[in-house]
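FAQ: What does a multi-protein file look like?

Like this. Sequence, then tokens, then the next protein.
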Amino acid sequence: EFRRVLFRSQLMDSLHDFTSAYTKWEVEQSKKPKPEKPLPPMSDKEVDVKGNLIFPTFKCAHTHSPRILLKSLTDLKIAEGASINAEAYLNDDYIYWLTKYAILEYLKNGIGVIADMYNSLDAIMAASNESGIRNSLSHMINNDFVKGKDIIHIYENGFDVYKKDLCDYRVGIHSEGAADIVLLKEISAYVNANKKPIRVHLSEKEEEIAKCKEKYGKTQVELFRDLGLFNYGGTVIHMVHPNEKDIQILSDMNVNVVTCPGANANVGAGICPVKELIDKGINVGVGLGAPSANLS
């Protein structure tokens, strides 16, 4: 008991000495003359954030925001085991609000920049600009989407309409399997005439690569290289099953890769060889596939 009392007494004395010394220091500081001019800013530009907080965020390098509708689900099921794609029933109003819901998920997890691929971009752009999140938009061009449309008009309109405020626009292709050779050649002509990089889902599943080899006698990466679609770089999404030659082509053509580990795990596609890509000097980003992809 005596030791506890002694320790407490010594502790109080020490605290008293510290506070007395600190108070004396504060008094001395207050007596010092103030600088005549304010200190110069720490940078060349000052921004009044009006009480808001600025902090760095993550970038989600690939997503399909409206698909948050299917979070924890796959397709909606109807009678007799038939399956329908729920997205077929989404109008712009649904897409707008679903994108806002997805943006809440992004911000909650520290994501401040996203890259959306979708074919109804008006509502996504509006939701992104209103929410204050940067979004790099691109269409998922495929044969069904371009029926009766001019591919050049789609892309030119995309750059005119969607490259504004907090949004950007890129040339997008859904995938090799969703675009026939005629469409891919048309896109290549536009890409090379306008020196544009592309964005495309590629080499996600082994069966997709096998079908490409059966049709064209080469991998999807080789096909896109030979068609000139990589002449100005770009980004390939997934890239779960590249061979050594594919990886070398991506490196040589300055093509980025986005891995979507949650989405790939969810469909059993496999694992992107991230280390091998990085070892070849390829930039590798991380995406969700969709906010509905469980485990993302």
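And here is the next protein:
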Amino acid sequence: IVFDRYQPSIEVRDKHKNVLPVSKHRATQLKYNRFEKATRAFNEYWQAHTVTLDDKPVVPFVKRKFNDTLELGGRFYGGFQRIPSKDRERFKIDNSVTRELDYSSIHLAILYAWEGMPLNYLEAYAMEGYERDTIKAITLRALNIESVSSLSRSISLSANPQNKEKYRTYKADRAIYDLRRAKGLACKAPFKPKWIKAFIEGIPSDTIADDLVYDFLEKHSAIKAHIGSPDIGLKLQAVDSEIMALLLDNLRLENIPALPVHDSIIVIRKHKIKARAVMAQSFEKITGFSAQIKTK
């Protein structure tokens, strides 16, 4: 598998996913060139390494994708990320078994860091009267919403039993599509209703949306001002992608090949301890606080 060095390794896209031209502003061009150079170095490094799934080659190359400007988004995307997580467990790098290491609650931790506070990881999803999985699902949605009222609407929509069943059907069809596409097989994407994007998994059918939102905001009062603020999800992605870029570059310099999966990395099992240490260092360098890292 050969990396096409003539294709850009990063791109800036508008809300319709059209690629935008690079600004002629000198500071923006310098930043673009720095990101391009680092991402290209990552892709070229992978030409000396291999990834396989059940002895079949997996393309390890990535592209960083920003939204409207270089200050929004910027995550690393690659075809291997569309392979279901259970199948990714069977990835081999250079014929060696792998492990996936994950930053816990990374966006919540970044928000607390912005307020000069460490996140209490043990209590991050603990709220009296609610299941942990429910609060975790709410948190993920709350950090990517346009307004607090839209969060309440999403909860109500997601508590509807009929919507739950429709969502399960769509998710199953989508998983089949993603797997076939990742293997290069002919396939057609399932129809995606507009409301699917707002659906939150794990919301009990008897949930009262306004009560849950109120309790959630009270729990996280320190970061309340950020929830529902403009482009908050993309701003958080810009920070987590900065952490990931630093992490991948440092691992490359340590000659540790790693595959990024948004807020986690896949590495050879024997590199797990060293990779965990580099993850912690990268997070602290960007945020000033400690990370919690777990093995998936």
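Q: Is there any per-entry metadata?
A: Some entries carry free-text notes. For the entry above: The mean pLDDT is 94.
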